[in-house]
Design a protein that fits this description.
The complex is a heterotrimer. Chain A is an all-alpha fold. Chain A contains nine helices and no strands. Chain C has a single domain, classed as Orthogonal Bundle (Cytochrome-c3 Hydrogenase, chain B). Classes of the chains: A mainly alpha, B alpha/beta, C alpha+beta.
Chain lengths: 202, 291, 421
């Protein structure tokens, strides 16, 4: 019994290692340039054993995006559940996004360079926004609360979502290309204010 | 069992709907109308004002209004007199229960115990013996069934607003023929079609309205939502809300969630359901199914 | 010395009071009072115009469907270029006609027969009423109080199975009419112009009419002999008739409403004159043979009034049968008319069971700015002065103390709930 539990724990740990290694490689080299043998080599495991965990590169990529979505979703959920003004909530969400880009750069890179760029990889199993459901749900809740409280303008979801997330993604991209003269965190105030002004009730 | 039916500001819809009860004649053999607004009764209304004996169930219909006089007496005083005597009081329809449409037409108007969802307390002495049967109108099966169960002394579990659970624990959504379009989040709906769900665009309140409309079919044959008309929430305390034919939304997200469903749970499920394009829901029902 | 007596009229749709002024043994003057009011027109103000489709059927528990149809017509009148498929138009005509039929049955059995001391089995009224409710529900979702008629058509698609259900019930209904009301061939009866021939048949209608004759009441309840019909379709024609003199052209600009002291009902006049509306008026405009004959003999009396109303049943049955047969189910149930204009005015006219029903609304900044309803009961029961009495008032004035005043009054079929909108 204890032995079985131990084995399961070990397996979960190994699984986590695979995801992290794969994430790093995917984010660095892109989906197609990364191979399973390469991952196996970095993980010091056999290719056959790796396939025991994930039966294809696509499934591994899908698992990664689900985990990123869950990670960001959980952090935004904390913001949604806090007693804060809409303005402050926007600032917190921007901060979370930029902090993640700084501390876990491969997460955001994966999101922008793999998930959004190689849509064909996600067609089966990640239809629509299923694999980013937790993240999108929290953004929806943020918007819903904002409109219900009278702070945000009632408009089409995607118009608002694109404005918010497209802006943040664009800044992270510029940062990654070393184009930004200042550190990403230094833009938080201006960007939060711009987003708020764009979304608030006129 | 002896029934006294008193109407305040009413449209008589509850009284007429009851006549559609399929077993009305047989059902009525168990009851005596001391007074009913349409049917032959033991007493004339003038006698009811003078005072009659033997009221067992008082049926209250229509919106109450302070100082309302129907003939000679102040209606609310007449009501209080018979309410004190009756073993049980039944408010029929949303007007008598919560105030309904006509409560919006003048000052001092309410249901017997409620102004919308707020208890106003004017008839609190009678609260314990009151059964609420909201609906605009109340379904005949609900009224006839409740009266028969009261007559037989059978247990009638009530919810917090005193609505019998046997009829009001369901939502109007339960049994709607358009349910699949809701479950799979197909948000296109066009009037004049068999397909589609009115929740997303056309204000259907079926998923958060208590009632048996799609369990006990209207006139035994149909229902509003089956016929492509959105549920207007007519059994609820806040009936009639504003802008009834358009779903109120916040950035595309319905402002009201299905009964008891947390928003996060709803949005997560919706996100998943919406990800799939299911071919069957995109073509007319009467077209051939593929393989 | 004049004697004043106040009477409550009940077992109508709601209640009304009549204050009789007797001089010697006769009614010298009568005032009709509706003491409660509900404020529907006010409730509608400021709302989204579509809300009227939900609120207005609730004006009345017995003729609410007529209010729905009047509402949708008023809303559609706000568009400049609205398309309605023949199917949608016909289905609406059908459900409206079914309500008329149901109201006629209910009134004849629940209101008129008891006042003639005649009894009929309860199922004579319950069965047709229930079946007609089912027929409306099959097409419109439920009865009473549905909202299936919307600008551009109807909310539902109708399948052949629904229509089959309607057709079967229609046959049942015809059988019930012949078994209960009068045992005749519908086709022949509609052409019949001999009162004696009608009286010889079996049924509750000949029994009722014979009872009126036996009691010598056939000339009671005569009024102004002026009739008006605003609605028109394949069954009714619009116009006015003074005695038997017809004029087809009407103009709503000549319609005037005025409030009545002590009553919640407004009086309504056409070119400053009161007119009777309802089945007798419709029959006078159409010159239907049997009613024409009754009118020739007894004038606009309660005899003619009751006969005209019951005789609408076979005509409605034939009309609806033809409508059902002519529906082309392949047509659209609804044609999107686009959003309502932000600023508009519209009028919707319907022939309801008790007569012409007129809805008028004004939309400003996309909301209802003003809503006005003129009901049949306002025409027939509205109060006038001693010099210019209203229609029912004229019918009551001159009655002897022994005469059946309640029957005279109720022969108009009072819809108090509509009138105290």
């Amino acid at each position: 019994m204890i032995k079985e539990q131990h084995r399961a724990e070990k397996k979960a740990k190994r699984r986590g290692e695979i995801v992290r290694t794969a994430l790093k490689l995917f984010a660095e080299k892109g989906f197609y340039a990364t191979t399973i043998p390469e991952m196996a080599r970095d993980l010091k495991m056999s290719v056959g054993n790796l396939y025991n965990y994930f039966s294809s590169k696509e499934i591994l990529a899908q698992e990664i995006i689900r985990e990123i979505s869950a990670y960001l979703g959980a952090r935004i959920r904390e913001v949604n559940e806090a007693e804060l003004s809409v303005r402050e909530k926007i600032r917190r969400i921007v901060t979370i996004y930029f902090e993640t880009a700084r501390d876990e750069p491969e997460m955001i890179d994966f999101f922008l360079r793999v998930y959004l760029s190689n849509r064909e990889v996600f067609h089966e199993g990640c239809e629509g926004m299923i694999c980013v459901n937790e993240f999108v749900t929290e953004i929806m809740i943020f918007f819903d609360d904002g409109v219900a409280s009278g702070a945000l303008k009632n408009q089409d979801f995607f118009s608002a979502f694109g404005l918010f997330m497209g802006y943040l993604g664009g800044m992270v991209f510029l940062n990654g290309e070393n184009i930004l003269p200042r550190a990403l965190e230094e833009y938080v105030d201006d960007i939060s204010e711009n987003i708020y002004n764009a979304l608030k009730v006129s | 069992m002896r029934l006294l039916w008193l109407s305040a500001l009413a449209c008589n819809g509850n009284a007429h709907a009851l006549l559609n009860y399929p077993h009305f004649e047989e059902w009525q053999e168990d009851f005596e109308w001391l007074y009913h607004p349409l049917l032959p009764s033991t007493h004339a209304f003038v006698e009811v004002e003078e005072g009659i004996e033997g009221v067992e169930i008082l049926i209250v219909d229509g919106t109450l209004e302070e100082g309302l006089v129907k003939n000679r007496l102040v209606y609310n005083e007449l009501l209080a007199r018979y309410a004190a005597e009756a073993k049980c009081i039944v408010t029929v329809g949303t007007c008598a229960t919560f105030g309904g449409i006509f409560a919006q037409g003048g000052e001092g108007r309410s249901g017997l115990h409620f102004s919308k969802e707020r208890r106003h307390g004017r008839f609190d002495d009678f609260w314990e013996k009151t059964v609420s049967l909201p609906g605009c109108p109340v379904q005949p099966e609900v009224l006839a069934g409740t009266l028969s169960m009261l007559r037989l002394g059978e247990p009638l579990p009530l919810d917090a607003l005193h609505r019998p659970k046997y009829f009001y624990a369901y939502t109007v959504h339960d049994g709607c023929t358009r349910n699949e379009y809701f479950e799979y989040k197909i948000d296109e709906h066009r009037f004049g079609a068999l397909e589609g769900c009115m929740f997303y665009e056309h204000g259907c309140q079926g998923t958060f309205t208590h009632g048996s409309c799609n369990k006990i079919l209207w006139n035994g044959v149909h229902s509003k939502t089956r016929a492509g008309t959105p549920c207007m929430g007519c059994t609820e305390p806040d009936f009639p809300r504003e802008t009834l034919w358009r779903t109120s939304k916040h950035m595309g997200i319905p402002a009201r969630m299905p009964l008891g469903v947390p928003r996060r749970a709803y949005l997560s499920l919706a996100g998943i359901a919406k990800a799939f394009r299911i071919e069957r829901f995109e073509r007319p029902m009467m077209e051939d199914e593929r393989g | 010395m004049a004697e004043v007596r106040l009477e409550l009229i009940e077992k109508i749709e709601g209640e009304a009071q009549v204050r009789y002024f007797y001089e010697e043994e006769r009614v010298d003057f009568a005032e009709i009072l509706f003491v409660t009011g509900r404020g529907i027109e006010k409730i509608l103000e400021g709302r989204d115009p579509w809300d009227a489709l939900t609120i207005n059927p609730r004006v009345c528990g017995i003729c609410g469907h007529a209010h729905l149809i009047a509402t949708v017509r008023a809303l559609e009148d706000c568009y400049t270029d609205l398309k309605l498929s023949p199917k949608a138009r016909k289905v609406r005509e059908l459900t409206l006609a079914f309500e008329l039929l149901q109201n006629h049955f209910k009134w004849f059995y629940l209101t008129i027969l008891p006042l003639l001391d005649l009894e009929a089995p309860r199922r004579s009224v319950l069965e047709p009423s229930r079946i007609l409710g089912e027929m409306i529900a099959l097409l419109a979702g439920q009865y009473p109080h549905n909202s299936y008629a919307i600008p551009g058509g109807i909310t539902c698609e109708i399948t052949p199975v629904d229509l089959h259900g309607v057709r079967q019930r229609h046959r049942h209904l015809q059988k019930l009419f012949r078994r209960g009301v009068i045992d005749v061939d519908l086709e022949a009866f509609v052409r019949c112009d001999r009162i004696e021939a009608m009286l010889k048949r079996e049924g509750d209608l000949p029994r009722a009419m014979q009872r009126i004759l036996d009691r010598g009441w056939e000339r009671l309840g005569r009024s102004c002999d002026r009739f008006i019909v605003f609605g028109h379709n394949d069954l009714f024609v619009a116009g006015k008739s003074i005695g038997t003199r017809l004029q087809k052209h009407l103009d709503l600009r000549y319609l005037r409403e005025s409030s009545i002291e002590g009553s919640r009902a407004r009086r309504v006049l056409y070119r400053e004159k009161s007119y009777e509306t309802g089945p007798l008026a419709r029959a006078m405009l159409l010159k239907t043979p049997l009613t024409k004959e009754a009118h020739r003999r007894y004038g606009d009396s309660l005899f003619s009034r009751i006969l005209a109303r019951v005789c609408e049943i076979p005509r409605l049955l034939r009309y609806t049968e033809a409508l059902i047969a002519s529906i082309d189910l392949s047509e659209s149930a609804w044609i999107d008319p686009g959003p309502l204009p932000e600023e508009a005015e519209g009028t919707g006219i319907v022939e309801a069971a008790r007569g012409s029903l007129i809805h008028r609304l004004q939309i400003k900044e996309g909301k209802i700015a003003r809503y006005r309803i003129v009901t049949p009961t306002q025409w027939n029961l509205g109060n006038g002065s001693r010099e210019e009495p209203g229609v029912a008032q004229s019918a009551l004035i001159g009655l002897h103390r022994e005469d059946p005043a309640e029957l005279v009054f109720k022969a108009f079929d009072v819809c108090s709930v509509c009138t105290t909108k």
